[in-house]
Design brief:
Distance between the termini: 90 Å
Number of helices: 24
Radius of gyration: 31 Å
Oligomer: single chain
Strand order of the largest sheet: 4-3-5-6-7-8
Strand content: 5-15%
Structural class: mainly alpha
Largest sheet: 6 strands, mixed
């Protein structure tokens, strides 16, 4: 039985129970408003947000590897869900809900399969600037889109431009009471987010306690607004959540319509990758603080199981949430048992207390979403990357603009394309340095950066990139320019300490370079060639055609060629 259970459970200590239970209560209070809000963001009935916060927590606890991860609906994945389903059916319709369930199931199967195949290294395929750009763009899209329910405006649009134009064209349709609720909630949550913790610490509360109270303001706002609307009898004047079905979700295997699967598999893959990369980043960040380790393959299986569980509950895709995970950790969670307790508490809410949210205004949920989305816009990272590496900064900005101006799918495609383009651009322009000897040492460094010794008859170049078809021509051009600038050179030494592979195109370039140097009475030498590369060269019999030698080190080459030049000069004098 111990082999079937996760290790954290078999090794669980009773002394951790109080901390996990307290964390579960705190996270549940955060999960409730987020679940309702993110379901609305995805265009789904609010109760599905609670369903998506129930079984996925149990599934992740069994298969995941993070001790504090809190899985459930998140803003970006909810937006992607809505974007994927919008072309298929009307938001909120039975077909739309069925599509959301299929999306969760397909995403879950993909993730779990990737985990079984040990493809956890996929987390490294998308660069952090691209992910950050995508999330920032999606957050701005969320903010613009949620201004409609915040103000009570009826308008349509999918891209940021369309949404903004629709809002401007319908400003005269603002509903005063709805807008008052929306703005009041936004201001209250903004003040709580930025000032409440500092105020409470000034009154003597501990930093951790003050921070937790500030983060729990959304549930206070949600319940308070629902009570106010109910007491004032404003249900007919506002768009409210309405009656939520009581009881637990009916578990059933969704009917898979393959005609819909063919339309949703690509969005499901995008949701899987984005959700996985973000979740792993969050898990690793918190694990490092506690000197723990994350198993990326287990994370794939845990997120896959969580999405399958969400689909069986009739809900939509889920992943790890940063704010909930932070609150879970700060509240003292020591194991995934806190997530299991949170699931139990949500189940009790669904059975006994769904009536609490009957009079909850949708404008309040919109304000909650906007506050959460503002925290996802990472301007600081964009400025840093722009100054640190212009290519990375452009990829980040391009991804964000792509999402904002053209939509989620286009934004993802732009991000991936920019990542690949940046990689290819860099690889096609490798760093090549003319090097010389640091005096009285065996070290060789760039002549433009260090005071080094050089000899006119020996030209030493260091190639700091693998040689392949994308950079063979630029490497050859650099070598020829260097030779033209040093016409007295008799020997060319290529230092290949950073070269791990040479493809067929690059091999042909080396052959042609070798023949050209022979015609000009020069010799080509190689130094510090790695074993795998030397094996490639030997398979092509290149060492037999090489006009010069292959040296173990650059210093050995420098000494040997220096001696050879001296001997040649001496022979010329004798003759």
């Amino acid at each position: 039985m111990r082999k079937l259970l996760p290790s954290w459970l078999t090794d669980y200590q009773a002394k951790l129970l109080p901390s996990d239970l307290v964390a579960a209560v705190v996270v549940t209070l955060l999960l409730i408003p987020q679940g309702l809000a993110y379901a609305a963001l995805a265009g789904l009935p609010p109760q599905l947000g609670l369903y998506a916060s129930l079984l996925p927590l149990l599934a992740y606890a069994l298969f995941g590897s993070s001790m504090v991860m809190s899985v459930g609906p998140v803003a970006v994945i909810s937006l992607m869900t809505g974007a994927a389903l919008a072309p298929i059916a009307e938001p909120g319709s039975a077909e739309y809900i069925a599509g959301a369930v299929i999306l969760a199931m397909v995403s879950g199967v993909m993730l779990f399969t990737f985990g079984l195949l040990r493809l956890g290294a996929m987390a490294q395929f998308l660069s952090h600037p691209v992910i950050s750009g995508f999330i920032s763009g999606a957050a701005l899209l969320i903010i613009i889109g949620q201004l409609r329910p915040l103000l009570g405006i009826n308008s349509h649009g999918e891209t940021g431009v369309e949404l903004a134009v629709g809002l401007m064209a319908n400003l005269s349709g603002i509903q005063p009471l709805t807008a008052a609720f929306g703005f009041a909630t936004f201001v209250l949550l903004w003040l709580a987010r930025n000032w409440l913790a500092k105020l409470l610490m000034g009154l003597g509360l501990a930093e951790g306690t003050a921070s937790l109270i500030a983060k729990l303001m959304p549930i206070v706002t949600v319940l308070g607004s629902a009570v106010l609307v109910s007491l004032m009898g404003w249900e007919t004047d506002l768009r409210v959540v309405g009656a939520l079905p009581g009881g637990l979700p009916a578990l059933q295997v969704p009917t898979i319509d393959f005609s819909i699967v063919t339309k949703l598999w690509l969005p499901a893959l995008a949701i899987s990758l984005i959700g996985f990369v973000e979740s792993v980043s969050i898990a690793q960040a918190f694990a490092s603080k506690n000197r723990q380790r994350i198993n990326t393959n287990a994370e794939l299986r845990g997120l896959g199981a969580a999405n399958i569980a969400s689909a069986l509950s009739g809900a939509f895709p889920v992943t790890g949430g940063f704010s909930r995970t932070a609150v879970n950790a700060e509240a003292g969670a020591r194991s995934p048992l806190s997530g299991i307790f949170a699931a139990v508490l949500i189940a009790l809410l669904l059975v006994f207390a769904t009536g609490l949210f009957h009079a909850l205004p949708m404008a309040v949920l919109a304000a909650t979403i906007i506050i959460a989305a503002i925290g996802l816009v990472d301007i600081k990272s964009l400025i840093h990357n722009w100054h640190y590496d212009r290519a990375e900064g452009m990829a980040q900005a391009g991804t964000a603009l792509g999402v904002l101006l053209a939509g989620v799918e286009v934004g993802i495609a732009i991000g991936i394309a920019l990542s690949l383009a940046t990689l290819v651009w860099r690889a096609s322009r490798p760093h090549i340095a003319i090097v010389g000897r640091v005096p009285d040492t065996e070290h060789f460094r760039n002549v433009n950066r260090y005071q080094v010794e050089t000899r006119g008859e020996i030209l030493i170049l260091r190639v700091d990139e693998n040689l392949f078809f994308g950079n063979a021509e630029s490497v050859e051009k650099f070598i020829l320019r260097a030779l033209e600038a040093q016409p007295e050179a008799h020997h060319l030494v290529l230092v290949m300490s950073s070269v791990s592979s040479v493809d067929a195109t690059a091999m042909q370039m080396l052959d042609m370079l070798n023949e050209r140097l022979i015609d000009e009475g020069m010799k080509l030498h190689l130094a510090e060639v790695k074993g795998p590369v030397l094996g490639q060269l030997e398979n092509d019999t290149f060492p037999e055609r090489l006009s010069g030698e292959i040296f173990l080190s650059t210093f050995t080459a420098y000494q040997a060629l220096q001696i050879a030049e001296q001997e040649t000069a001496q022979q010329l004098q004798e003759n």
